[in-house]
## 1
Amino acid sequence: MEMHQVRYFLAVARTLNFTRAAEECNVAQPSLTRAIRQLEGELGGDLFRRERPQAQLTELGQRMLPLLKQCYESAVSARSLATAIKKGEVGSLRLALSRTIDPSLVTPHVVELGKLFDGLELKLLRGTGSEVLEYLKQGEVELGIAAKIGDEWERLDNWPLFNEGFQLIVNSMHALAANSRVGLDDLRRERLMVRTYCETTDELLDLLRGREFDVTRFHEVSADGDLISLLEAGFGVALVPRSTRNPVTLVRIVVDGIELTRTVNLYGVAGRQRTPVASAMMKMLRAYDWSRLTV
C-alpha cells in the first residue's frame, strides 16, 4: 500500500467524483483510477461503486475510510515532524541529573531552549553518579550533570561547570541559627543527617572520623525532599552543597574548618552525534557564569 494510493482514495471519498479528485490531487484521472484499482486489489474488494453522477462508497470502502484516513494523517504528521527535526525547529532533550544536583540549576536553560525549539520535549532522569553514567552508556540520555560519576569510561566527555563548597543547614529555630559562621567542632553534639546518595558522603565521613567525630550517630536519608522535611521539623542538621536550594524555614551557616568541595561536571559521549537541542544545551551550560554559586 502506497501513501499516494491512500491520498487518492480519500480524495474520491470526499468528492465522490473521480474527475474532481484527480484535479484536486493534481494528477491525470487514469493514473488516479489505476492507483485506486491497485489499492482495491490489495484490500480484496471494490472501494467504490462507479455510478453517475457520483461514485458511492461500498461497505468495504466505508469500513476502510476511517482507518485509511488515520493512516494517512499519521504519515503526514510523521513526515512533518521529521522535516521539523531536520530543520532544528523541534526536538527532544534527554538529560540525566544526579540526585544531588538541584533542578533549579538547569531549569532556566530548559526554559530558554523552549523558546528556541517550539516543540521541545524534555526527558529528565535522576539517579546516582553511576546511574547517570549508565544512562549515557545505554544512550537513554545525551547529556548528564553530576559530580563524581563512578568508573572511568574511555568514551566519556567531561566539562567542569563549577566548584562549590558545603554549608550547614538548620531549622530557623535551631540554637545555631543565629550564627553566620560556626566551627566544625560546634557540630559535635549535633545529630547530622547524611545523604547516602551524595557523591561526597564517603569523603565527608572520612573527614569527620579524622576529627574524631562519632560517625555512628548520624541519620541517613535517601532523597532531598525527605532531608528538607526532617530539617524543617528540627530533626537534626545537614551539610549540603552551596547550590542546594532551601526554603525560608531553614538557615544556611558557613562552617569553618571543613575542607570539603565538589566539582559539578557536564558529561556527554565522545563520538556520538548530538541533536541540535542537546548541542544548544551544552553550549548554554558551558557559557554560563557559574561563579555566583561558589562560596
## 2
Amino acid sequence: MIGRRWFVPWFWLAPALLLTGIFLLYPTVDTVRQSFLKEDSNGFIGLNLDNYRFIIDNPQPLVADTHSALLNNLMWLTVFTAITVVLGLVIAVLASRVRYEAVAKSAIFIPMAISFVAASVIWRFMYEFNPDIGTVNAVLTEAGGNATRWLQDTGAPQTPFTDAGPNTLPNPLQINNFALVFVGVWMWTGFAMVVLSAGLKGISTEILEAARVDGANEWQIFWRIIIPNLSPTIVVVATTLVIQALKKFDLVWVMTAGRFETDVVATQFYKEAFLFGNPRLGAAMAVVLLLWVLPIMVISIRRFQFQEETR
C-alpha cells in the first residue's frame, strides 16, 4: 500500500518544484550560459572566458570599473557586517537591563518596517548638500561645521591603493561609501538586535547569577559567558548580513545609481546588462556574485544541520 502511494508527496511538491525551476533554476542556468557568449554570438559555443577576463583586466575603468565594484562589495561585506553585529549585540545586552526594554527595542527595529527603497529616498534627502533640505548638513552647520556632499564626496585617506599609476586599485574607503553603509547599518541593526536578544534570553539566569556570586564582574560575564553562549546566534546573524551585503543593490541604486565610485557588483551587472547593452558581461558579473554568495549559503545550511543533529 505504501509503495503504491510513493508519488503522493511528489504530487504535492510538484507545483513548488515547477515554480522553482521556472523562476530560479532556469534563469540561473541561462545566466551562466550567457556569461560564456562572445560579443558577436548569440549561441553557446563553448567555455569562452573573455567576459570573466574583462572583469579581472578592467580595460575600461571609466565606463565599467569592475575593480571598484568588487572592492566596494568587499567593503560592504566587512564594515557593514561588523558594525551591524556589534551594535545589535551591544543594544540587545543593554536593552535587557532596562525596564522599558520593549519600547527601546521597538524604536531600534522601526527602520526594518520601512521598505529599502523608501528608506533610501529618505536618506537621500537627509544627506542633501543644501542645509535647508538636508538634515545632516543642517545639524553640521548649526554646530559650526561645513556642509558636505555626503553622496558625491569620494574623498578618502591616501593609501597605496590611491597612488597614481595604471595598475593601481581604487580605494573603497570613501566618504560616500561610508554614508551608504551607515544607512544599511541603520536599517539592519534592528534585525541583529532582535535575533541576538532572543539568543540572550536563552542563556540561563542561573549561570549568570552563579558567575556573579563567584565574583565575576559584568565585563567578564559578557566575554566569558554571554559571547560563548551566543556564538551560534552571532554566526547566524553575521551570515545573513554577509549575504545581504553581497546582494546589495536597491540602497546603492536609489541613492547614487552607482555614480561617484559607489558601484557594487549588483549595480554593475545591472548597468552592463540593461544600460550598456552588454548582457554577456552583465551575466558574468551576476555569476561572480553567485559564486560569492553560494559558499556562504552552503556553510550556513550545513551549520543549521549540525545544530539540529546536536540538539
